[in-house]
Amino acid sequence: MKLFISADIEGCAGVALTDETHKKESVYQRFAEEMTEEVVAACEAAHEAGADEIVVKDGHGDASNIDPLKMPEYVTLIRGKSGHPYNMMYGIDDSYDGVLYLGYHAPAGDPNFSISHTSTGNSLYIHLNGKVMSECMLNSYTAASHHVAVLFLSGDEEICRQAKELIPGITTVETKHGVGAATWCKAKEKVISEIREGVKKAVTGQKKECQVALPEHFTYEVTYKDWKKAYTMSFYPGMQKVDTFTNKLETDRWMDIVTAHCFVVY
Where along the sequence do coiled-coil regions lie (predicted)? Predict the structure, then answer.
């Protein structure tokens, strides 16, 4: 069995503040270590459940957060940013049997986690076909474009709820929940244990229930925090100005959406 893991940091155990996710801050290193530990736990559990090949994409920031020297021998870690529009999903193709998400978080504009965002901090919120678009939604449609099931997600309570709405068969592990600027964090040991149990359950479960249906048409709409950014990005090919802060793109091709996203929100 061949699995793809896309890993982020904001949804990992204990993370509650933006500084904890930025490499130049003194508090960052401990949470990068936690990200590594959660990835290792997921890989070990998946391997025990029958996965013999696992590819992990470091999906946070400059993509050099996970310690490559702690990866099991059956794991390949993709570090750094290739520049490919798939970004957090770079490396996915039709050969995989399933996708797992670790450390995921609520989308831009969501009040249920204090450091919610979608890819960058430039958008107030992003809509895809009328629904708020999270990184989970973005990446799940990329998986769907390759006919790969999305089996598991760990992260804050809200992104777990949204993942289940999009993918009814997915197994999730809640690591925390937010109230205003506060974050109620589950103990690290409990998170690691639940990731192990959840991944085993997900990998041995019915993958047909975790297939995401790819829409036939896409309307991608970005509302920016800064009207000047909105103006500049309105010139991206195919982008239409909706109002002072909002632009939209309509297309039947998923690759058009992921490519636009990698340009217009960065």
Answer: none
Q: How far apart are CA 71 and CA 190, in angstroms?
A: 21
What confidence tens digit (pLDDT) does each residue in 26-37 have?
999 999 999 999
Helix boundaries (H) for the chain:
28-48, 135-145, 157-166, 188-204, 227-233, 254-264
- Domain of 32, CATH number, reads 3.40.50.10780
105 is in an annotated binding site: yes
Q: According to the annotation, is 60 in a ligand binding site?
A: yes
**Whether 147 contacts 141, CB under 8 Å:** no
Tokens of 15: 């993370």
Residue 73's pLDDT band, with cuts at 50, 70 and 90, is very high
pLDDT of 261 over the 90 cut? yes
Decide if 219 is inside a domain: no
Cα separation of 101 and 239, whole Å? 30
- In the residue annotation, 117 being an active-site residue is answered as yes
Structure tokens at 160: 């777990």
Q: What is the mean pLDDT of residues 11-30?
A: 97
CA-wise closest residue to 100 among 209, 211, 5: 5
pLDDT given at position 55: 98
47 is in an annotated binding site: no
Number of domains in the chain: 1
Residue 213 inside a domain? The answer is no
Catalytic residue among 47, 84, 117, 127: 117
- Please give the residue range of the domain that contains residue 6: 1-111+133-207
Any idea which residue has 């025990």 for tokens? Answer: 48
